[in-house]
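Lecture notes, unit on protein representations.

Consider one protein chain, 484 amino acids long.
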Amino acid sequence: MKFKQDFFTQLPEFYAQVYPQGISNPHWLAWSEDAAKLIDLQQPTDALLQGLSGNAAVEGASYYAQVYSGHQFGGYTPRLGDGRSIILGEALGPQGAWDVALKGGGPTPYSRHGDGRAVMRSAVREFLVSEALHHLGVPTTRALAVIGSDMPVWRESQETAAITVRLARSHIRFGHFEFFCHSERGQADKLTQLLNFTLKQHYPHLSCDLAGYKAWFLQVVQDTAKLIAHWQAIGFAHGVMNTDNMSILGDSFDFGPFAFLDTFQEDFICNHSDPEGRYAFGQQPGIGLWNLQRLAQALTPVIPSDDLIAALNQYQHALVQHYLMLMRAKLGLTERVDSTAEQDQQDLELIGRFTVLMEKNQLDYSNTWRRFGQLDPSSVHSSLRDDFIDLNEFDAWYQTYQTRLGKVTDVEAWQQARNSVNPKYILRNYLAQEAIIAVEEGNLAPLERLHQVLRQPFAEQVEHEDLAKRPPDWGQGLIMSCSS
C-alpha cells in the first residue's frame, strides 16, 4: 500500500498517535477482492496479514485514533473518539485515496476503560454488511478483510478477538465538528481548520470561504437525505444513528446491531439497547434530520444560522424525491418529469398503502418486492394476490396501481428491470449468525459462500436459492446488542 498522510500532518490536534497491539495467531477469515482493488492490492499475503493484525509495522503508516464527540441516543457526550479503531493513513488507489483503519486493533486514549478489541462475530457482521450494502448500490464504507485470532476477550462471555480492516473515503463524522464547537479548546478557529481540510480533501470544487461552507453544508444535508432514503427503500435498519456514527460524506458508517427487514414492520427495532425505539426503522428519516440539526448547531460559529436553517429546510424534499425515485423503480412506475406536489403525494400514498398491506399480511419485505419480477402488469389477475390474506384491500390497491402504471408493451423487459432493482439476496441476520457459528467451528465455507452471493444480490443464482428464503422461526426479527 502507498499512503498519503494529510489528516495526520495537517490536523495534529484532532487525533492521538497510538499503535496497534498485535493479536495472537492471526489468520484470514474473509477478504474482499473488490475492496482490495480500491487501494491497489492484489492478494492477501502473509506480510500483509502480519501488518494488518498489528504484529508488524506497515510501511508508510502513521497510526492514530481520531477524537470527536457526539449525541448518543439523544444525549451529548463531550469526548468520544476512536475507542477501538486505529487509522493507518490514506491509502492511494486507482480512483483516489481511502482511509485504512484497523477496527479492533487495541486500546486507544479514547477507549474509556474498554479493551479496544472487536470480537469475531462483530467483525464478520461488519465485513458482510459493508460489502452487501455496496453491491446493493447503497453508499457505504467498505471492508477489506477480517482477521481472526485465538486471543480471548470478554463480553457477555469469553470470545475471540478479530480485526475488521475498514476502508472509508473519510472518517470525518458529525461528531468531529461537535467536539470543537462545544469544547473549551476554542470554536471558530478549529472549526474553520476542519472545514477547510474537509473541503480541500473531498469538495475541491468549493471555495474555502463562507460561500463554500454554505454550499458544503447543503451538500451534506442532501447526501444524508439520499442515504436514508436508500435505507428505507432497501429495508435497512442501522440501529445506532448517533451523530458520531454519521459520515459527512453520506456513507453508511459504523455498523453494530443493524438488520435488513424480514417481515415488514415499520416500527422494527434491531438494537437490544434501544427499547424505546429511538432508532427504529421508521424513525430513521426523522433522526437523520435531528442529527443534521446537531451538526448545524455546531457550525453556528462559522456559518450564519439563517443559512444553516435554509439548508436544513431542503432535507425533507431531497429525501422524499430520492425515496420516490427508488420506490417508483421498484414498482415499475414511470419517473414523472417535473411532477407536481399532488402527483408526488399520490405516489407516496400508493407506496404507503402497499407497505401497510405488507405489514398487515406479515409479508417478507425483500421477497415481496422480488415478486414484481414475475408479475404480468397487463393482466387483471395479479400473481401477487395469493400472498395476501386481505384480498379486498389488495384488489383495491392493485386497481389503483394498474391505473398509475399504464400500459406495459414489453412485459419481459419490464420484469427484468424490476429484478435489477429488487434484490433476491439480502444479508438476513440469521444468515450472518449461521456463518458466524460455522466460523466458530472452524468452517469458513458458509461465510465465503454468503459473501459471494451478496456480491450479486440481483442475480438469480439458482444454486443458492436457499439463501433467499424467509428465515426460520428462530431467525425472524433477530435483534442484536451494541457489542454486535
